[in-house]
TrEMBL record:
One of its GO terms (biological process) is mismatch repair. SUPFAM superfamilies: ATPase domain of HSP90 chaperone/DNA topoisomerase II/histidine kinase, DNA mismatch repair protein MutL. One of its GO terms (molecular function) is ATP-dependent DNA damage sensor activity. It comes from the Eukaryota. SMART domains: MutL_C. The gene is MLH3. This is DNA mismatch repair protein. It comes from Purpureocillium takamizusanense.
């Protein structure tokens, strides 16, 4: 079979599907074309369910000759934006042709120099109609002059895309996500556009409307704060919190503003490169990450725990932890500005470094205690770094602080500013002082060896094969490394250079070598005292008890750590660690039902004898058994957790629904308008997990009432309302920022097991269940009767996940294999040859010491 080229219409469709990916991309591309045409008013109408988009503008319009057959409208690689200019968005001439290949495209335009309109209709790259001049029903009459572009049934020729669009946009939440993305992108365009502009947005399914208007005010702070409020990305009360910032280097200039008020989402962040919007659609943009990392490593958004303030109060990051900012980036130089980031090798590194510097200085000025930042590249990140990184040091060249305001002392790491930490920073260096009399005129370098070696003789290489360093670059390759020398500060150091090569005509002084003196031996009387004396305070640690298998201890490790739950508290500072214990089988949940109780150990563990499951079928008398140590706290915690999770839902015929208990007194809290709309939008998601909400709209704010909760978390949330409030808000923003559409099914299939019912459960609900099971479980030092121990092991055998507690710690660990047919404790199985030899050697040594 011969290899043939694809048809032209297939090639055009493949190219177009790579250039056009969504209806939002089409709408934003048409808006940029309107901006390049000089429009000041733009109307955008969308229908996400049908894939339709309509854009009207009052720009200069398209000349009628471009609508003719020999014109360039909607043809591939045809553009009116030649020569390239940083004041224009498009330059490749492929956008309109790509849209025409994937939809039904209609263009009607009235050029400001002509008295008539023109019309063109294209379906899947096939021209349907050309009207020059256009008939009355196809004329453009919205403004005196301008263009109307209509896109219908985008991706209508692709059945897979049509089916996907119908399934996704069936839910209003998916439409709201696309709407929010469109609003943020259009807002960024308005922020970067230098002239006055008004954009009206309308969505047909949800009947949502929004008008974004940027005034002619040259104040960037007023412009940014106004547009953020219009887009519902900031509250009107935060207008005074915006602070202007700017920085520049030889190749990059950044101007913008940052708000001192933290927010709960990263959506209130925007950047632009000139007039081109820089988006962070999937939270994977390196420029946004550079800024957020600096803010994350500071006290920005830190709140105190509810226990109250004090020296022992804990600080934690609250839900509002992300900054609001807008940065407009300019690459200096017309050629670099026109190419953007694609063709510039160091532009991205320069921009990221300068953004980190702006963020660091902003946080330090407003006393948010930022940590030192690391430079992204080795050199040429920003020329202002030498000035900015001195800001943390007290210098006469630093600007004086403002009157009436003093800054608190910063941590040691913060005082370093933005100075990059070199990979050679931890290596030893020698600093040599120069006398003033030696600064003028070269002098012969003294050589204590009497002669100077030839270049390259006796020198060790600095770089070996593969580009790896084979020695430290700051040591003299001619010196003997074992020769101790004295540095300028009088400290004797080993492995330091005794000579220094001349640099810029300077002369180095030879470092004097200290003579080695023999250490006098102590007298026989003193030596006898030292040998026989035992320190009563710092006694030598006793010899470790020999282990049966391996050199590492198996079983109990003591460590004094404190954590957030009882599993890691100071009272429960015992941890089970699995060592290299060889077993002739494996532990299984089914075998735990046959476990034999031995004893409770140290009121912390339960020692049991457990039959092992082998991969091959073996008779009962040949099956091995193992000694297993069970953590009584972790085991009871696992049992209680699964009981809570199994009772979270109620079986009703073939359906499973969450159990909801009404509150005697509703939990009421207020939220801003934007957050209240999001909570109301995701109310069905919370109802699917037993959290009943009532959202009431009030002027300027929303009131949320929690009327019902699952019984397993009700008492805790009633005593601490902050827990359920933070849970609702955090889950709402997580749903809004994620790309997945949440499952809102109020019913689940009863034939499935309960672990499958918790798929997609809010993390906050799981944390409350974990906390309750841990707080109410059996603690260490609780003495249990043999019957209680057997009952606990029996309950553990019926759990779905018996081998770990709620927080992931192991609940049991095997100690030893008792071998097959062992009817009593002590019937050890023969170990491996290495283990037997070590045990035999240790036993023989003990016998020899006893004799």
């Amino acid at each position: 079979m011969s290899i043939r080229q694809l048809p032209d219409h297939v090639i055009d469709k493949l190219k177009s599907s790579a250039a056009v990916t969504s209806l939002n991309g089409v709408a934003c591309g048409l808006v940029t074309n309107s901006l390049d045409a000089g429009a000041s008013r733009i109307n955008v109408r969308l229908d996400f369910a049908r894939g339709d988009c309509l854009v009207d503008d009052d720009g200069s319009g398209i000349e009628p000759r471009e609508f003719l057959e020999d014109g360039g409208l909607a043809k591939l690689h045809h553009t009116s934006k030649i020569p390239e200019s940083p004041a224009l968005h498009g330059r490749r001439g492929d956008f309109v042709a790509a849209v025409a290949a994937l939809s039904m495209l209609s263009v009607a335009s009235h050029h400001y120099r002509h008295i008539s309109s023109a019309y063109l209709s294209i379906h899947n790259s096939q021209v349907l109609a050309r009207r020059v001049p256009a008939p009355p029903e196809q004329r453009f009459d919205v403004f005196d002059h301008g263009t109307r572009v209509s896109v219908r049934s985008l991706f209508g020729s692709m059945p897979v895309r049509v089916k996907h669009r119908a399934s996704v946009f069936r839910e209003r939440s998916a439409i709201d996500k696309e709407w929010g993305s469109l609003v943020r992108e259009v807002m960024t365009m308005l922020l970067s556009w230098p002239s006055q502009l008004s954009v009206s947005l309308h969505e047909a399914n949800t009947q949502r409307q929004l008008r974004l208007k940027s005034g002619c005010n040259t104040d960037l702070v007023a412009r940014v704060s106004s547009l953020f409020v219009q887009a519902s990305l900031a509250d009107s009360a935060d207008a005074s919190s915006w602070v202007p910032v700017s920085a520049s280097s030889r190749q990059v200039r950044i101007k913008g503003c940052v708000s001192t008020t933290p927010v709960a989402t990263k959506r209130s962040q925007a950047m632009s490169l000139g007039i081109q919007a820089i988006l962070d659609s999937h939270d994977s943009n390196v420029l946004y990450d550079a800024v957020n990392k600096v803010f994350g490593n500071s006290s920005f958004g830190v709140v105190e725990d509810a226990e109250g303030a004090g020296p022992n109060s804990k600080l934690r990051k609250g839900l509002e932890r992300w900054p609001m900012f807008y940065f407009q980036i300019h690459l200096l130089g017309s050629s670099v500005q026109s190419r953007g980031l694609d063709d510039s090798q160091n532009a991205l590194s320069d921009i990221a470094g300068l953004l980190q510097t702006i963020s660091f200085e902003f946080l330090k000025k407003h006393r948010f205690r930022p940590l030192a930042i690391e430079r992204l590249s080795d050199k040429s990140i920003f020329s202002t770094a030498k000035v900015l990184k001195r800001s943390g040091k007290s210098s006469s060249r630093s600007p004086a602080p403002s009157q009436g305001r003093t800054s608190p002392p910063l941590p040691r790491d913060s005082a370093r500013g933005v100075r990059a930490e070199s990979p050679f920073g931890d290596w030893h260096r020698e600093k040599v002082g120069w006398a003033m009399s030696n600064l003028h005129g070269p002098k012969p370098l003294p050589n204590e060896r009497g002669r100077r070696q030839s270049p390259g003789a006796g020198r060790r290489r600095l770089v070996g094969q593969g580009g790896k360093l084979v020695r430290k670059p700051f040591e003299d390759p001619l010196m003997d490394e074992s020769e101790p020398v004295q540095s300028a500060d009088g400290v004797v150091r080993a492995n330091s250079a005794s000579e220094c090569a001349p640099d810029a005509g300077h002369q180095t002084k030879r470092l004097r070598v200290l003579a080695s003196r023999p250490k006098p031996a102590p007298s026989p009387w003193l030596q006898g005292i030292l040998d026989s004396w035992r320190n009563p305070v710092f006694e030598t640690a006793p010899t470790a008890v020999p282990q049966i298998s391996g050199d590492d201890p198996v079983g109990i490790l003591y460590r004094g750590t404190s954590g957030l739950h009882h599993c890691q508290s100071k009272e429960a500072n015992v941890n089970l660690e699995v060592g290299s214990v060889s077993l002739a089988g494996r532990l299984s949940r089914s075998a735990m039902a046959e476990a034999e109780f031995v004893a409770q150990v140290d009121r912390k563990f339960i020692l049991i004898k457990l039959p092992l499951v082998s991969a091959t079928q073996m008779p009962a008398d040949r099956k091995s058994q193992a000694l297993v140590m069970v953590d009584q706290h972790a085991a009871d915690e696992r049992c209680r957790l699964e009981e809570l999770m199994a009772g979270y839902f109620n079986r009703d015929a073939d359906l499973v629904k969450p159990v909801t208990q009404s509150l005697d007194q509703d939990i009421v809290f207020e939220t801003p308008k934007g957050e209240g709309e999001l909570i109301d939008r995701h109310r069905g998601h919370f109802q699917a997990w037993g959290v009943s909400l009532v959202v009431e709209s009030e002027p300027g704010a929303f009131t949320v009432r929690v009327t019902g909760l699952p019984p397993s978390i009700l008492e805790r949330c009633r005593g601490e309302p902050r827990l359920i409030i933070d849970l609702i808000r955090k889950e709402t923003w997580a749903l809004e920022d994620s790309n997945a559409v949440p499952e809102r099914s109020l019913s689940r299939e009863a034939r499935r097991s309960w672990p499958s019912w918790f798929r997609g459960c809010p993390p906050g609900i799981l944390e409350l269940l974990f906390s309750r099971s841990c707080r109410s479980a059996i603690m260490f030092n609780d003495e249990l009767t043999p019957d209680e121990c057997r009952a606990l092991v029996g309950r553990l055998s019926r759990c779905a996940f018996p081998f770990q507690c709620a927080h992931g710690r192991p609940s049991m660990v095997p100690l030893a294999d008792l071998g097959p047919g062992s009817s009593r404790i002590g019937g050890w199985r023969d170990g491996t040859a290495i283990e037997a030899e070590r045990w035999k050697s240790w036993w023989m040594d003990r016998q020899d010491q006893g004799q």
